[in-house]
Structure formats: C-alpha cells, structure tokens
C-alpha cells in the first residue's frame, strides 16, 4: 500500500494570509515526504477561497525544489480549461524540474461555477469530451511529432518541448466514477483515482468492482494502479471525543461544497458561506455519526483496519485528503498520528 497526501491551500478565515497558507501546505508536504509518502497531489480550482489552486504547476515546481523523493502530482488538471500542448509541455517541464517525479491526473471538471467562468458557460456535464480527446494527444506529444485534427482541438505537426524524463511516458491518472470512465482509463493505460466523497466503504467496494470490470474488458492492457482518496482525520486512542472535531470540520467542508456546487449564490470576494445545517436534516450522510463512519475518521487502529480492507479489495494507493476546514495545527496533529502509527502497519 502506497500513501499520498491530497492538499490545497484552503482559506476559511480572512485573517489568515495566502502566504501563510502556502507555508502551511509546504510544511504538510515536507511532513508527508519524511513520513514516506509516495506523492503529494494538488488539484485545480478557480476563484474560490475554500480550495485555492488556479494551477497546481507553480506549487508543485516549488515543492520539487524543496523535496527529494516524493512525487509531485497534479491531481487533477481540468481538461476543458487547457490546451493539450500546454498540458503536455508544463507536465514535462515539471518532470525535468523534479528529475522524474511528475505524475498527472486529468478530470472532466465538476463545478458549473467554474465552467461559467473558464469555459464560457459550457455545461460541466460535457467536460468528459475534452478529457477523452486530450489523453491520447498528450501521450503522443510526449513521444514525438504529432498533428491533431479532433473535434475540440486542431493543430499541425507539433511535439512536446521539453520531453519528460520518465520514459516512455510519465504516470497519467484519470478521475473516474462511472463504468465508462473506468473503462476509458484502463483501455488507455492510465491509472485510476476514485473518491467515495461522503459515502461509506460500500462505495469503495462498488468503485473497485467497476475498476475490476474495466480490467476484465481490457485483458491485453497491463494492470494500472488504483488510488482511493478519502477525507482523513486521525485522533488519539485516549481522546474518545476526538472524532467529533474531524466530523464537524468535514461537515462544514461538504456544506461549503454544496453551496459552490449548487451555483445559486454570488460569492463575496471568493467566499461562500456553507449551506445551513437545516438543509440536510433529511440527509443521513450529513449526520455526524455517519460522517465519522463513512469518511476516514478514527483512532490509528480503526484506520489501519479499514485501509487493510481497501488493500484486500485491490487498492494500491490510499490518499490522505486533508482539506477539511480545520486549522493547520489540527491538520498537523492528525497527519503526524497517521505517519507515526498508521503507515508503519503497512511497511
């Protein structure tokens, strides 16, 4: 089992500066590297304070210079917002800067809020077309001259400059949920990243079953890697109420996600208030006990048992998602417990 860190600068308090958040993200990454994590993942989001990353590339290039072993993962680049030549070139340059430690995840995008601002109001549901067209193009550009005449992009003979260090191509990941996405990823030799969001381990089982079905559909393809991304909060065994800190914070995170995803309000200088708790009275997944049960909240022993189950299902990488609205000190405490008491059980 490999472990990775999924992290953004997230701002809940206007008194905390962006510079401080940048330093906090760096500190968590250095902790993860010292703890033997394989990768740090940073995604792409626009115009929202609660997940700050207009591009993962500058952050990852900086972290490349501060680290020596951990891989630098763009997780994920939103395909409809980019040109394939730019994705290929920037990823290859990061691979050169990091001496072969770049990994890239691609996604179709989710927030209509972002599509309204970045893609002229295109329906977010149509983002998959860009994703499917982009993946083979990037692969071809990394390997040499290539001309493209697609439905979305057209360009004459071009190549990626620079070329990535990792050959024949660096690791590429696809964020997948439905069977078609799993099948596309496996068919094109891409690793698969999944997130159950607020659902429990039955959703992890369902997602791994979709991955296994895609493997069966493509027997000629070497088995790619499967990563599960989960909101994670570890508390000490002697702190019987420690789970509540994590559950309340993750509730706040998802109620804020609901406000952004609903796209019904105008943000105030990049902030949206979380949707009110009353809205979710009939939604059992928002009950704090269910958040505790469904997301990765618990003592080290409880979390070890659940990740062992994921390992039995065929999961190759567990990604510790630490965006959760908690202050930096709480995130550090949780990550340290995970590194010191969970990771050794898998070594």
Automatic annotation (TrEMBL):
InterPro entries associated with the record:
Bact_Lucif_Oxidored, Luciferase-like_dom, Luciferase-like_sf
Fetch the Gene3D superfamilies from UniProt: Luciferase-like domain (3.20.20.30)
The record places domain Luciferase-like at: 1-317
Entry-linked Pfam families:
Bac_luciferase (PF00296)
Query: Matching SUPFAM superfamilies, A to Z?
Result: Bacterial luciferase-like
Q: What name does the UniProt record give this protein?
A: LLM class flavin-dependent oxidoreductase
The source's superkingdom equals Bacteria
Q: Which GO terms describe its molecular function?
A: monooxygenase activity; oxidoreductase activity, acting on paired donors, with incorporation or reduction of molecular oxygen
Keyword vocabulary terms for this entry: Monooxygenase, Oxidoreductase
Q: Gene Ontology terms, cellular component aspect?
A: cytosol
